[in-house]
Amino acid sequence: MFAALTQFGVSGRAVKQQLCCVKFWNPRDFTQDNYHTVDDRPFGGGPGMVMLVEPLDLALTAVKTELLRRGVVAPRMIYLSPQGRRLDQALVEELVREPALVLLAGRYEGIDERVFARHRLEEVSIGDYVLSGGELPAMVLLDAVIRQIPGALGHADSAREDSFADGLLDCPHYTRPEDYLGLKSPPVLRGGNHAEVSRWRLRQALSRTARRRPDLLEHRAMSPVELELLTELLGENHRETGPE
Ligand code: 6GU
């Protein structure tokens, strides 16, 4: 499943360049029985299965032992679960500074609660919807974190990145042709005035964010230029109501 992360795109290149190392442990390898059982029916009844405490405990202990050999003493350990703290860019930027991350991806209805008594696990969710397992959320988290590692992005990418790191939605983008079936690209982007281009992009980002995600602006400090642009936009909105 994790080939999408380790073999493709920005994260794949970061792994290939050894900017980070991703390693996998299979709980089945930490079972004792012939069937390599990792789940069982829940005490108290009900649908679905629960992941056994022992294979998970042994797997997590093995990971910690290996990290200790590599000099990492108390790694942050994250259990991907819809019950967790919602992942956002602030958490991503916090996690990229860690020397190591241990991610636990569950399957079935969940894991035996006693795993939490054996290991200090933080719970992280990637949004309010239900997925069938923690693997995709783990890849989402890793992709977001790995692209923040210095050197993971080409220069072309890193400048553009500032947008969401900035707490704003991205501005619209255009490339050739200038005119597609009468649909024009904004002339300001082809005028060669970099200050004007920057101002246009910031204005678009502010306008989009205010319309689509006003919640993002609530706790965000504004620079003088941003306040000026927002005031301009508010004045326009009094006079007209357009799609954007
Ligand atoms: Cl982290 N896991 C699962 N199974 N579903 C989710 C999720 C995590 N985040 C959102 N939905």
Overview of this structure, please?
The protein is an alpha/beta fold. It has 2 domains: 3-146, 3-Layer(aba) Sandwich (Alpha/beta knot), CATH 3.40.1280; 179-241, Orthogonal Bundle (Trp Operon Repressor, Chain A). It is 42% helix and 13% strand. It contains 10 helices and 8 strands. The protein has helices at 3-6, 9-16, 53-69, 89-95, 115-118, 135-146, 155-165, 194-212, 214-218, 224-239; strands at residues 39-40, 50-51, 76-86, 101-105, 110-111, 121-125, 179-180, 183-184. The strands form 3 sheets. A 3-stranded mixed beta sheet has the order 1-2-5. Helix 8 (194-212) crosses helix 10. The radius of gyration is 23 Å and the shape is elongated. The two termini are 39 Å apart. The model has no long low-confidence stretch (mean pLDDT 94). 6-chloroguanine (6GU) is lined by residues 80-82, 125-127, 129-131, 133-134, 137.
